[in-house]
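Worked Example 4.2. Read the sequence first, then its structure tokens.
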Amino acid sequence: MRHFTNTYDKVQFIVASDDYNWTKEYIASEKPASAVNVTHCFNHTAGQDMAVLSMCDHVIMSTGTFGWWAAWLAKGTTIYYRDWPRKDSPLFDHFNRDDFFPPTWIPMGD
């Protein structure tokens, strides 16, 4: 979130998740509400969430295909978790990062 709040004067974040409690607890901005608005998008179908996310200017994506498609359809700046998949995981040996993350997307670390 910091990348976007440092880049733009006013930011609207739309959070789509199937875990309402986790997102309400952990996804918040350090900036004042006059500069940043966080809206939690719940109780919609996956298709409705995808439609909303695809209309966003930029995306901070979770790992997985749902977040990937939302980012791809949005066509703006995309930030993704850099350390996925973990090096010791079974998926790591079968995963080609260059095939999954376009070069214009920005990796985010811990």
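Now turn to a second chain, presented in exactly the same format:
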Amino acid sequence: MSQPGKLRYWGCRGRVDPIRVLMESTDFPYEYIQNPFSPQWKEDKKNFTFGTLPYFENDEVKLNQSMSILRYVARKTSTYGSSDAETAMIDQILDGCYDWLNDMKPYIYANNFVRFP
């Protein structure tokens, strides 16, 4: 990769955070772009594979799903296990965490949710 990738997400915490933690902890080159909540989003999302965020793009890939992005970065940084068994255990933990996150959505996206910069 000649240029750092671009990682886009809303101006809040969410599905992008595990990706950012991995990128930061492994010195993976990227630029973080906070997508504004605006009417312009209806046009912007047409440029993304599934029209959702997070979205990651570099010279090699254009990815639109948080787990796909996370696994891509893990493979590129050699942190996705050194055997099939290790990779399966990592997948089990990741999928369990995302099941829990899905269960927490009603609380995370409640009207009184506080946005952080």
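Notes for the reader: Helices lie at 17-25, 41-44, 66-76, 84-108. The CA atoms of residues 1 and 60 lie 7 Å apart.
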